[in-house]
Write a structure and sequence with these properties.
about 290 residues; alpha+beta; Phosphorylase Kinase, domain 1; D-amino Acid Aminotransferase, Chain A, domain 1; 7-stranded antiparallel sheet; 5-stranded antiparallel sheet; 6 helices; 16 strands; globular; binds adenosine-5'-diphosphate; binds magnesium ion
């Protein structure tokens, strides 16, 4: 049997190369305040992979995506081990475009900081008198370039995203930049509206796109998980202040109250956090995680 080693190991995910496909595995690791915590959140990896699967299926008519299967029977023999069950996705390998496509539906985080400073978010002038966590009149597209390891991603204008893509794909920069912008807004609108009807606000998120063998734009990476998005509970939402994170609320609160914990959570906080991930999955999909 062929053995596999991840060729890429991020904070939370592992990526395995399989020729013209990839196997992307979401682990049970959790990060907060830019650190990987010492605890594992049982089933978090499975929940995140199944959530991406849910959104990919819901939106395949808006834009094709890279998902082939989450069944390990469709993967090389090595992946038919319990530790890959449910948390792995076989994907079509794409040539990734070097743009992170961020979309903001609510004013929060760095967007809120920017608005307080000069009344704009991502270069867009907004009405006066907006308050923190308020819904934006229209979702805002905020591309950024992927930084080398260690650097922070750099926000860029839409025009700059055309330039970056034009350099890589002469004659097609504007076409690709427009396509990923329009897809980002369309995917966000459809899914945020759906999530809202289930009690979850998706305040913002990030998509990554790539090109298939025909040069067509395809959605890649993970989709609308709490790791790539800000999820807020609709219950208790009130503009004018910061909102609790749907999934990491207990973790962040506890870490703030226990600065000397060395990133080891008590079991009680782990248990409550597992329950939040299960709740998010059940609310969104109407199904219990297995
Ligand atoms: N279908 C795909 N084909 C090729 N690369 C992909 C595909 N989907 C996602 N990727 C890439 O896989 C990597 C996943 O790594 P990740 O764990 O998110 O760490 P990071 O974002 O820090 O690089 C990213 O570089 C992403 O762009
Ligand atoms: Mg990533």
């Amino acid at each position: 049997m062929q053995e596999y080693q991840p060729f890429k190991e991020g904070k939370v995910r592992e990526v395995y190369d399989n020729g013209d496909t990839l196997i992307i595995v979401a682990t049970d690791r959790i990060s907060a305040f830019d650190h990987i915590l010492k605890n594992r959140i049982t089933l978090k990896g499975t929940i995140l992979t199944q959530m991406s699967k849910f959104w990919f299926e819901l939106t395949k008519d808006v834009l094709p995506n890279h998902m082939i299967s989450t069944d390990t029977k469709d993967m090389p023999e090595y992946f038919r081990q319990e530790r890959f069950d449910g948390n792995s996705m076989l994907c079509k390998k794409l040539e990734m475009l070097p743009i992170e496509c961020i979309v903001r539906g609510y004013i929060s985080g760095s967007g809120w900081e920017s608005y307080k400073a000069d009344g704009t978010v991502c270069g867009i002038k907004l009405p006066e008198g907006m308050v923190e966590s308020q819904k934006l009149p229209e979702p805002i597209y905020a591309p950024s370039t992927k930084a080398e390891i260690g650097d922070h991603d750099e926000n860029i204008s839409f025009e700059k995203s055309i330039e970056v893509l034009e350099k890589l794909y002469p004659g097609r920069g504007e076409e690709y930049a427009t396509k990923i912008k329009d897809a980002t807004i369309a995917l966000y609108k459809k899914c945020a509206e759906y999530a809202l009807s289930k009690g979850i606000i998706i305040a913002d998120t990030k998509f990554e796109f790539g090109l298939d063998e025909n040069g067509d734009v395809v959605l890649g990476d993970e989709m609308l998980t709490p790791d790539s998005s800000r999820f807020w509970p609709l219950d208790g939402y009130e503009a004018g202040k910061g909102q609790p994170s749907f999934d990491k609320q207990y973790v962040r609160d506890w870490l703030k109250a226990n600065p000397d914990s060395d990133y080891l959570l008590p079991e009680e906080v782990v248990g409550k956090t597992i329950a939040k991930y299960k709740e998010a999955y059940a609310l969104l999909t109407g199904k219990e995680i297995q």
